[in-house]
Amino acid sequence: MNCLVCFTLAALHCWIVGSVVSSVRGQQVWPVPYKRLDRRPDVDPYCQALYPFCPSGDPDGRIPVMSDSDNISVFRLQTPVWEFRFGDMLGKFHIMHDAIGFGSARMGRNFTMEWYELFQLGNCTFPHERAGVSAPFWCNQGAACFYEGIDDLHWKQNGTLEKIGEISGEMFNEMARWVQEDNKTGVYYETWTVKSDPGPNATTWFDSYDCSQFVHRTYKTLLDMGAELSSRTPTYYTKIYLYSGTPLYLGDDSIFHQSSMKDLATDIKKFYHSFRSHQSIVEMIESLLEAFEKMVLEKTFYFYYNSVYWKLPMKYPYIKIIFEEIPLP
Ligand SMILES: *[C@@H]1O[C@H](CO)[C@@H](O)[C@H](O)[C@H]1NC(C)=O
Ligand SMILES: *[C@@H]1O[C@H](CO)[C@@H](O)[C@H](O)[C@H]1NC(C)=O
Ligand SMILES: *[C@@H]1O[C@H](CO)[C@@H](O)[C@H](O)[C@H]1NC(C)=O
Ligand SMILES: *[C@@H]1O[C@H](CO)[C@@H](O)[C@H](O)[C@H]1NC(C)=O
Ligand SMILES: *[C@@H]1O[C@H](CO)[C@@H](O)[C@H](O)[C@H]1NC(C)=O
Ligand SMILES: *[C@@H]1O[C@H](CO)[C@@H](O)[C@H](O)[C@H]1NC(C)=O
């Protein structure tokens, strides 16, 4: 099931991500804009998915063309991926997965659209050590998956299946073109949202890029086209936060190839070494909590974003997993 593999996170600024310039006269702009590529790079064969990505989607990612005058219902879909307690430390985690459903009145068919990791959350959060490769190796692509059907029971049970509006077939087709483009240019999954503190005036250093961000971007795209969407119930999303002082830019993979950077390279590798490979969400969360202990002790997190490394001077409360309300755009 697709949803088992997706750990969703949301961010408030998702729709501006990618549209802001990264620096104004050399001054760093925060949050660091998520970098878009011209096209999706091929995945290295080293990255092997335990569960195939988008098994019931079109192999070429095609989205059916609707008749312009069709009336398409839009559904907000959300389901718990996992609910569990880890000791008494951080209470109960609600890890939710978000998606969007579409129902064509004319065709009498419905569809589900979601965005998630090609190789699961663990692989998007921590890199691998590969023999003969000096830099940490990441299998961190995420992508959109569009497939026929809405599994009502799956979303309704303990989750949400709510109709939030209707759009024309013409609007749907325009959205589909946007999805294809978005899917080609935004290719790396980003697990963490990094902020200066938990307060309301905090600076966001980095925004996550994940399933619920995709859902938000899609809503925003539809609203910009003139769609009217509204939810009768509050919309909650899971977010994983890191808290740090001003991030320090370190560099790209060349860190691991220069003798002058040997100590830094060793430090980064040591940092990631302690996180074992993850087969399940539970193991993943356990590692996050190990990361927590490490951060309290060492107050350093080597953060990977836009394929470059940053050093985060970590601050109390270091890390939080929050299930918080974020209204529709
Ligand atoms: C994570 O990536 C590794 C390396 O390719 C792979 O062996 C493993 O199956 C991946 N994990 C999942 C859950 O897909
Ligand atoms: C998005 O990209 C992935 C990876 O190339 C592909 O498998 C998928 O079909 C694409 N999805 C859409 C909706 O284009
Ligand atoms: C989607 O289509 C299936 C099959 O026709 C139907 O059982 C289900 O109720 C539909 N779901 C929604 C949300 O329209
Ligand atoms: C929904 O929640 C109930 C009670 O917590 C649980 O027994 C059931 O397995 C859950 N269903 C799904 C599909 O997760
Ligand atoms: C879709 O159909 C409903 C009635 O079923 C109607 O109220 C609504 O205005 C239609 N929406 C569009 C976008 O055509
Ligand atoms: C946040 O900023 C506003 C406006 O500058 C200020 O009035 C408020 O006291 C600040 N809140 C906190 C918790 O610092």
Which percent range fits the helix content?
A: 10-25%
Rg measurement, Å: 20 Å
DSSP summary, beta strand count: 13
Bound molecules: 2-acetamido-2-deoxy-beta-D-glucopyranose
Structural category is alpha+beta
What percentage of amino acids are in beta strands? Answer: 25-35%
Main sheet?
6 strands, mixed
Order of helices and strands: EEEEEHEHEHEEHEEHHEE
Can you offer a commentary on this structure?
The protein is of the alpha+beta class. It has one domain. The protein has helices spanning 120-125, 152-156, 169-185, 211-224, 262-273, 281-298, and strands spanning 23-24, 27-28, 71-85, 92-104, 109-117, 142-148, 160-168, 193-195, 204-206, 236-244, 248-251, 300-305, 308-325. Strands 8, 9, 10, 11, 12 and 13 form a six-stranded mixed sheet that branches. A five-stranded antiparallel sheet has the order 6-5-4-3-7. A two-stranded antiparallel ribbon has the order 1-2. The chain starts with 22 loop residues before the first strand and ends with a strand. Residues 1-24 and 83-91 have low confidence and may be disordered. The protein binds 2-acetamido-2-deoxy-beta-D-glucopyranose (NAG) (6 copies). One 2-acetamido-2-deoxy-beta-D-glucopyranose binds at residues 46-50, 119-120, 123, 128, 139, 279. Keywords: Glycoprotein, Signal. It comes from Cyprinus carpio carpio. GO terms for molecular function: hydrolase activity, acting on glycosyl bonds; palmitoyl-(protein) hydrolase activity.
